[in-house]
Amino acid sequence: MKVRVDDYSNSLAGFEDAAKNLWVEGQLDIIYIDYLQIVEPSNKNLARRLQIEEVASRLRRLARELKIPVIIMCQLNRESEHRIPRKPLLADLRESGALEQIADAVWLLYCPAVIAKQRGEVPTEEQMEDNPKLRHEWLEIRHKLEINCAKLRNGPVGTERLFFYLEIQKICDQEVWKRG
Question: Of 46, 111, 129, 137, which one has the greatest count of Cβ atoms within 10 A?
Answer without folding.
Answer: 111
